[in-house]
Amino acid sequence: MRSATAGAAIGAGATVLVVAAALIQAAGDNPALNAALTVSVPAEYQGLIEKAGNTCPEVTPNLLAALLTQESGFNPKARSQVGAQGIAQFMPSTWENSGIDGNGDGKRDVWDPEDAIPSSAKYLCSIANDVKDVPGNKQNNILAAYNAGTGAVKKYGGVPPYKETQNYVRSISVLAGKTPTGSGKAGTMASADQGATAVDTAQEMIGTPYSWGGGNADGPSTGTCCSPKGRSGKSIRGFDCSGLAAYAYAKAGIRLPRTAAAQYAASKPVTPDQMLPGDLVFYGSSASSIHHVGIYIGGGYMIEAARPDTEVRYSSLGSMSDLFGVARPVLTTATEI
To answer: pLDDT value at position 278?
Structure first.
């Protein structure tokens, strides 16, 4: 099947914004009948996503956009450590069986979004049929099967007990905004108190090792690489940049997606004169190429999990040259798993 690794890949030079929103009203447990939130997508992919997102009733444009944000940050050249390829992160074997010639040029090219995006939607539809008899939330089961395989979903009768898969499903559901849960009105920005809670939580993690792929809403976790000096390359428990942000805001009652690019998409930009402690500071050349996030604490400083061989620390906002912007998390709607 495709990779279980949710892509935090860096996108390249796309002009941003605008957006895909599903126009179908909420009703019952059919994912296609649930109202969706707006997801920011690169303009050049908007039409592809809107068209492919109507391939079958179980898939909406907003769900597809959220999945692609989580998988690759809309980077058509993304390649995971386990070999998943392209904007939709297909493993070669899965692409061989499920890839289609979406643009009709006579080739099936996993690196071409005009092929990969329609293929991703078709694959989701195929999965929806495969897991239609599995009990539980239909959308969660589809996303879990895209991540971990239909066999695992059938074996466990729903989302399997894999932390990575559970976080993957939760992150995409948060971004796609399926079912209202929790307190607060969806679409409103995090309060000053929630920002302060996020800062306090992040401060408690000062000194925690950087771990690529480490950390989530539940706290530090073991990443796939990057330990402190002297042990570089070995697994270690800790946080990467977006894992720290996800944990800090979970303590404030807000579920953020797992990757920095997806966190930007789930937040509302603020101007310098509007900045408050807890706002998220993003780095990259465009919204689709965001590669780093920190938590603003005031006075031109942030808390960040910076890079391999460092620990969670205080840094100046100017410590990196490609500051893209500052944004405040927005209360979304999400499906719990």
So the answer is: 96
